[in-house]
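Make up an example, fold above all:
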Amino acid sequence: MANPDGIAAHTRANASGTDINRDWFDRRTREAQYIHSIIKAWRPHLIIDAHEWTGPCAGPPNSVEQPHCGEADRERAMRIVAKRIAHAAGLAFIADGTDCDNRLLHRRYALLGYASYLIETAPDVDCAVKARAYIGAIERAAECVAADGKLRLALSPSSTSFNPAGVSAYLEPIRTGPLADPEASALAMLAAMTAAYCLMMWIVKPLTASTEPVWSRKYVKCSIDWETAAHTLMGKHGLAPLTSRSWTHRRLRSRYAAHTLT
């Protein structure tokens, strides 16, 4: 996006009031300078300047425009691509003349040795239709420059000086190892989290052991399954868990024995 401030303010000009679309010859605005630095570093095979009309236009409102470049072979190659783009995107084709304003981006860079095109759509066209037009044009342009080496060379002689080292700052570093695959990275992270959770539970579980009383099953083994309603002794003292200390307590044991004999 060449003019983010203008988009935010719904104006054609940028924040300083300058029309960037008339600044590609002198490049006084910071926006034009930045985009020029990218083009200079990348040396692209093809440039598409995507626009939208905000009012009435003299020509077809939905169109792709091929600028004049001054070289017959390049002009012919650029026209081939422009017509293919127009057909794929459902746009009208416009051949630009020699007496046009060269301050526009696509015209300026066509004179600097790049195959550059302008795409315009009308403001009353549905957004989904616009999206299909822009995407169709970009995809068809990429297919053209990728499929035919001779056509690619004829389109943009300036692109032959492309230097990968010059664009390294714009590229993500190449990832190697098991984390290079996003799916493998996700699985490895999930496995690590599962292992960490299991280890944590193994360590923490003894610390959170239940402190509830455990009832002795010696009652069942001795056939003494006390019922508080039938045995007044247990109702008097209350039903409580038997521990090793209480079970060996002489007084309590003698009471159990006396009650059993009766």
Summary: DSSP finds eleven helices and four strands in the chain. Residues 216-226 have pLDDT under 50 and may be disordered. The first strand starts at residue 46 and ends at 50. Residues 43-170 form one domain.
